[in-house]
């Protein structure tokens, strides 16, 4: 719900908000205490959380699913007192029930967050309290695997990026930044955060990563050469404090420009939409692993806080091996 200029909500809009918050949805259990708690929760969502009608509808639907489940689970319409007596096992039964209905784990996670918000507000208002809900963990969201490019695809992207601009220095800049992402495994934000003084001039460079943690990464001669060529052509003076990668007006390069370059390159090469700047970082790790790199070293190079994050690349490599096996081994083919 939008506010007027200066952040003041017009009187008619405020009245509409209040009416929306007070209009209880149909089908609620008859218990007066529960209905009052829901009404106060809705008013809190609108007035304190400034929830939009769409968000309010989603939260309301999540709570309605839960109350309908309780009606069947308890054999009667639930009351606010019933909600206060539920055990952690009861909440897990609700999760199992929704999972059996086919709800996605992301939606189920939001549903549990809705319930926690309702319970916490009830506790804050002194209406009821049930610490058992905090003993139930949200379902883990599905973990997506990194989507790297094949080695030949990654190597083909680099020169292709240089063919997309007529301005030589811009072409050299795009080649340099993509070479840096693939050759050193940097995140796009890390690369764009470099200053001229930070540019690699030796066999290693210091990178400031997430959480402002520094790490040292090796630098291939190819990477240094690409950056040196870009700086030699760049029309903007290489002041030490200036951003290493700049736009046409000399300011820090917008990450969207790098993403557009990759979009154009992948269209020319017929690569999937997953061929993004970040995919070059994934490619760096996957190709190192495929050539015998150990996980701990790759973890350090990528700046991962947890080894489990790096271990996803072993799953990528295993999936690739299985795909090759299924396609090539005669006993893996169907009907054999």
From TrEMBL:
InterPro entries associated with the record: CB, DNA_brk_join_enz, Integrase-like_cat_sf, Integrase_catalytic, Integrase_recombinase_N, Integrase_SAM-like_N, Tyrosine_recombinase_XerC/XerD, Tyrosine_recombinase_XerCD
Catalytic residues, chain numbering: 187, 210, 278, 281, 304, 313 (o-(3'-phospho-dna)-tyrosine intermediate)
Subcellular location: Cytoplasm
PROSITE patterns assigned: CB (PS51900), TYR_RECOMBINASE (PS51898)
Ranges for domain Core-binding (CB): 32-123
Pfam families in the cross-refs: Phage_int_SAM_1, Phage_integrase
Alphabetical UniProt keywords: Cell cycle, Cell division, Chromosome partition, Cytoplasm, DNA integration, DNA recombination, DNA-binding
Gene3D superfamilies xrefs: 1.10.150.130, Intergrase catalytic core
Subunit structure: Forms a cyclic heterotetrameric complex composed of two molecules of XerC and two molecules of XerD.
Family: Belongs to the 'phage' integrase family. XerC subfamily.
Job description of the protein: Site-specific tyrosine recombinase, which acts by catalyzing the cutting and rejoining of the recombining DNA molecules. The XerC-XerD complex is essential to convert dimers of the bacterial chromosome into monomers to permit their segregation at cell division. It also contributes to the segregational stability of plasmids.
Name this protein carries in UniProt: Tyrosine recombinase XerC
Gene: xerC
């Amino acid at each position: 719900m939008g506010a007027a200029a200066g952040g003041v909500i017009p009187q008619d809009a405020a009245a509409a908000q209040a009416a929306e918050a007070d209009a209880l949805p149909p089908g609620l259990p008859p218990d007066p205490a529960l209905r009052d708690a829901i009404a106060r929760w809705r008013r809190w969502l609108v007035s304190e959380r400034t929830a939009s009608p769409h968000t309010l509808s989603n939260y309301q639907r999540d709570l309605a699913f839960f109350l309908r489940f309780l009606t069947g689970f308890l054999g009667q319409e639930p009351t606010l007192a019933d909600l206060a007596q539920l055990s952690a096992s009861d909440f897990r039964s609700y999760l199992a029930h929704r999972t059996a209905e086919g709800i996605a784990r992301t939606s189920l996670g939001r549903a549990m967050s809705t319930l926690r918000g309702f319970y916490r507000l009830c506790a804050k208002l002194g209406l009821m309290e049930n610490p058992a809900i905090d003993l139930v963990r949200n379902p883990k969201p599905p973990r997506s695997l990194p989507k790297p490019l094949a080695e030949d695809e990654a190597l083909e992207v680099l020169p292709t990026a240089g063919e997309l601009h007529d301005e030589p220095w811009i072409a050299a800049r795009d080649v340099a930044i993509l070479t840096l992402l693939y050759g050193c495994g940097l995140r796009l934000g890390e690369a764009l955060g470099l200053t001229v003084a930070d540019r690699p001039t030796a066999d290693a460079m210091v990178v400031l990563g997430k959480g402002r943690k520094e790490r040292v990464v090796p630098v291939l001669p190819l990477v240094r050469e690409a950056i040196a060529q870009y700086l030699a052509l760049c029309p903007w003076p290489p002041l030490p404090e200036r951003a290493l990668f700049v736009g046409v007006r000399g300011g820090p390069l917008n990450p969207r420009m790098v993403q557009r370059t990759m979009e154009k390159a992948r269209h020319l090469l017929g690569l999937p939409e997953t061929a993004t700047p970040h995919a070059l970082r994934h490619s760096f790790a996957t190709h190192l692993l495929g050539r015998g790199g150990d996980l701990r070293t790759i973890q350090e190079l990528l700046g991962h806080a947890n080894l489990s994050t790096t271990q996803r690349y072993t799953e990528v490599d295993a999936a690739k091996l299985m795909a090759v096996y299924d396609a090539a081994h005669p006993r893996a083919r169907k009907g054999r």
